[in-house]
Amino acid sequence: MAIMGVAKFERFFRLAAGLDVDKTDLKRFNDFINRKLYDLLTRAEAAAKANGRDVIAPFDLPIAKGLQERIYEFAAIDEDIELRPILDGLATLPPLDLAIGEEARAHLPAVAGGLGLALARAFKLVVPGLKNPRSEEWERVLGVFDLLL
């Protein structure tokens, strides 16, 4: 990732939760986004198949109320830092049986942003007062997401 992208990533975590992260945390973040998008897309694929469709639509994505709110909040933050194009480039879409529709594909960077915002804020809930997450905190917070998504 280019230096500008790393700086935007760092700024995003500062704005989202007052956390200081660096480029070494970017790989963990990228892995998290790709894993959770895959999880959401596999459920979306099941929903599309159950409804007799061969293309995944945005409404197939299992977006709960909390994540939807984080997506809206991400949009407000992103107006200032313009992270969405970087998230679009970070997300590696998994091979699926069904095609991902253009509308669903266009929505994925916002979903990734909402997931990133939820991740940043989860650090503060799991470890109050945290400023710079270490491997141990990453493992704890990622474990919470793995339980729920």
| Stretches with pLDDT under 50, minimum 5 residues | none
Give the C-level CATH assignment: Mainly Alpha
Radius of gyration: 15 Å
- Nearest-integer average pLDDT: 92
For the largest beta sheet, what order do the strands appear in spatially?
A: 1-2
Q: End-to-end span in angstroms?
A: 27 Å
Describe the structure.
The protein is mainly α and 149 residues long. It has a single domain (3-148), classed as Orthogonal Bundle (Histone, subunit A), CATH 1.10.20.10. The protein is built from 6 helices and 2 strands, in the order ααβααβαα. It is globular and about 50 Å long.
Short structural description:
71% of the residues lie in helices and 3% in strands.
Which helices and strands occur, and which strands form pairs?
Layout: H1 3-17, H2 23-50, E1 55-56, H3 65-81, H4 84-90, E2 99-100, H5 102-126, H6 135-148
Parallel strand pairs: 1-2
Helix pairs in contact: 1-5, 2-5, 3-5, 4-5, 5-6
